[in-house]
Structures are given as structure tokens and as C-alpha cells.
Amino acid sequence: MAEILVNNEVWEPLTAQEKSLVTKTLRESGGIGPHDTIKASADAEKLDSQMIFESVSKRASTACQVACGTAAVGAAAACSLMAPHLAPACLEAAAAGYDQCMKYCDQEPH
After folding, report:
1. Which of 21, 42, 94, 97 is 20–30 Å from 68 (CA)?
2. Cβ atoms of 36 and 71 closer than 8 Å
């Protein structure tokens, strides 16, 4: 059983429901094991999967933003599940896609 340390500034703003969703997503994607726990720490390094925490913690105010977050989390989870040894690269690619998607949302009227 491992304890996954997450930076407080990423983890603490999340609601209990969001924390539960993040934990479930990480478990299903193979990011953490079934008995691992997530603990916030002031001096913890941010996980490679920080993108998941950020995408869930952003309060999506438009359908466009919701679609971006859902697509990014889904892409990261599917990629990590199919190629666990490439999980960090999967998350980086999903984060880049999420950033581009959010830029589109910010520029376009929806």
C-alpha cells in the first residue's frame, strides 16, 4: 500500500465529490493501486497526473469547458489503461489537448 502525496494547492480546493472522482479515475486508469491512498502535503511534488486534478478542480462554467475536461480525463485514462508504461506521456498529451481545447472555449462565443 502506497501513499500518493499531492500538493495541497492542487488537492485542497476540490470538493469531496471531486476528490472521489479523481481517486476513482486514477484507480481505473492504473495511476494508483486499489489499496493506495491520496494524501495532501504542503511539500509534495505535483504528480504527473496533475492535469487530472486541475481539469476536475476547474469549475467548468460552459458546455465547452465541460467537454474539454471530460475529453481530457477520458483520453488520459484510456491511454494509461492501454499502455500503463506510457502513463506519464499519456497524461502530458491529454493535458496539452485540454489546454488547446480550453483556449478554443475562451476565444469562441458559445
Report:
1. 42
2. no
If you ran DSSP here, which 8-state letter would residue 77 be given? H
Count Cβ atoms below 10 Å from residue 28 Cβ, excluding itself: 13
Return d(Cα 106, Cα 68) in angstroms, integer: 12
Please, which residues have CB within 8 angstroms of residue 38's CB and are 6 or more apart in sequence?
3, 4, 6, 11, 19, 22, 23, 26, 32
Q: How far apart are CA 52 and CA 23, in angstroms?
A: 10
pTM (predicted TM-score)? 0.42
Tally of structural domains, the chain? 1
- Segments forming the whole domain that contains residue 41: 3-107
